[in-house]
Amino acid sequence: MIDETFHLTPLDARRYEFGKALRGYDPERVNQFRDQVAEELERLARVNQDLDAKARGFHEQLRAFRERDKAINEALVSAQQLRNEIREQAEKEGRLIIREARAEAERIVDEARSEVRRIEDQLASLDRARRAYLAQLRVLIERQLTEVAAAEQTPMSPPVVREAANGSPALVGSLDQE
């Protein structure tokens, strides 16, 4: 049975003294073996120290990698949150722009409708004025035609010329009208 608390060092192997026995082992060969065991223990201790140093280095690298991994994951989560926030903000701004554009479009359409109504009112007013002018012109022309027709049916008499108050001649009318 091996004692787990017992640690053999190279120094222990070199200093261990075997008791003398009458029919024991050859002391020279035991010493030689003891030296070989001590050298092997020294080599194994160096290898063990190297492996321990490498293990500590690997543990340190692992810790650094885990910290980086944690930082990368946190950055990724932050980037995803930021992306979501930016998307939400862009959607809000887009809805606001669309709402403002619709309001502006409605205002422009209302202004255009008002302008159309104003122009239609002006056009109707101009049409009424044109009709009134044409009606007045028709009445005037008809009166003139009536006077022309009447003039054609009455014989013409020479005009009467009298002297005006300033001494110049003035046409007063025909002799038939006096």
Provide a descriptive summary of the structure in words.
The protein is mainly alpha-helical and 178 residues long. The protein has one domain. It has 2 helices and 2 strands. It has a two-stranded antiparallel ribbon. Strand 1 (159-163) and strand 2 form a beta hairpin. The longest helix has 127 residues, at 27-153. The N and C termini lie far apart (173 Å). The model has no long low-confidence stretch (mean pLDDT 86).
Q: Which terms summarize this structure?
A:
2 helices; 75% helix
| Main sheet specs | 2 strands, antiparallel
Structural class: mainly alpha
Counted beta strands: 2
Tally of alpha and pi helices = 2
Rounded to an integer in angstroms, the radius of gyration calculated over CA atoms is 65 Å
Strand content: 5-15%
List unreliable stretches of 5+ residues.
Answer: none
Describe the secondary-structure layout:
Blueprint (H helix, E strand, L loop, with lengths): L9 H6 L11 H127 L5 E5 L5 E6 L4
Antiparallel strand pairs: 1-2
Summarize this structure briefly:
This protein is mainly alpha-helical. The chain has helices spanning 10-15, 27-153; strands spanning 159-163, 169-174. It contains two helices and two strands.
